[in-house]
């Protein structure tokens, strides 16, 4: 078993790993919730058994690279269901405040990407719940459900319920 205390870098952040992006490498697929754990054991897609006992303060992220001595293994976050919301009209401060209030009351982590607010859900049916919650502003927003890799905004660290 490969024991890991910290990744050696990230393919999206470190130029030294550019050759890995186009190469043939092992992937270790992990959910966002598992990325939060310090102690974790998983198998890569080529069978490498990896045990994480991360040093204090170290968190795994999508694209992190670990080294098993022979080859590099890349941590790949699994996509998850999310709701994404866009304003139909820009600079509607009252709508933005209400969106923040409603999503915040549901204790959801959020990500703000360009002009889009994204947060994870468990099932497609939650779109109905949020449609009802957003009833006062529903005509001012576009809401879609899809699957993607979700990374919460670092300043909005909340506990999911």
Automatic annotation (TrEMBL):
InterPro entries: UreE, UreE_C_dom, UreE_N, UreE_N_sf. GO terms for biological process: protein folding; protein-containing complex assembly; urea metabolic process. It is found in: Cytoplasm. Keywords: Chaperone, Cytoplasm, Nickel. Residues 10-74 form the UreE urease accessory N-terminal domain. Its main location: cytoplasm. This is Urease accessory protein. Pfam families: UreE_C, UreE_N. GO terms for molecular function: nickel cation binding. One of its GO terms (cellular component) is cytoplasm. Transmembrane segments: none annotated.
């Amino acid at each position: 078993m490969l024991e890991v205390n910290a990744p050696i870098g990230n393919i999206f952040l470190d130029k030294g790993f550019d050759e890995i992006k186009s190469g043939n490498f092992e992937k270790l697929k992990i959910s966002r919730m598992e990325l939060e754990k310090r102690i974790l054991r998983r198998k890569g897609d080529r069978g490498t058994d990896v045990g994480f006992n991360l040093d204090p303060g170290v968190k795994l992220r999508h694209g992190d690279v670990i080294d098993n001595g022979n080859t590099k293994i890349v941590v790949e976050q699994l996509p998850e269901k999310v709701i994404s919301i866009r304003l139909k009209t820009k600079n509607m401060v009252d709508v933005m405040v209400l969106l923040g209030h409603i999503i915040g009351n549901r204790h959801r982590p959020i990500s703000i990407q360009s002009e889009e607010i994204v947060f994870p859900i468990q099932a497609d049916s939650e779109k109905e719940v949020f449609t009802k919650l957003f009833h006062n502003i529903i005509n001012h927003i576009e809401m879609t459900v899809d699957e993607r890799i979700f990374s919460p905004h670092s300043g909005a660290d909340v506990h999911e319920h």
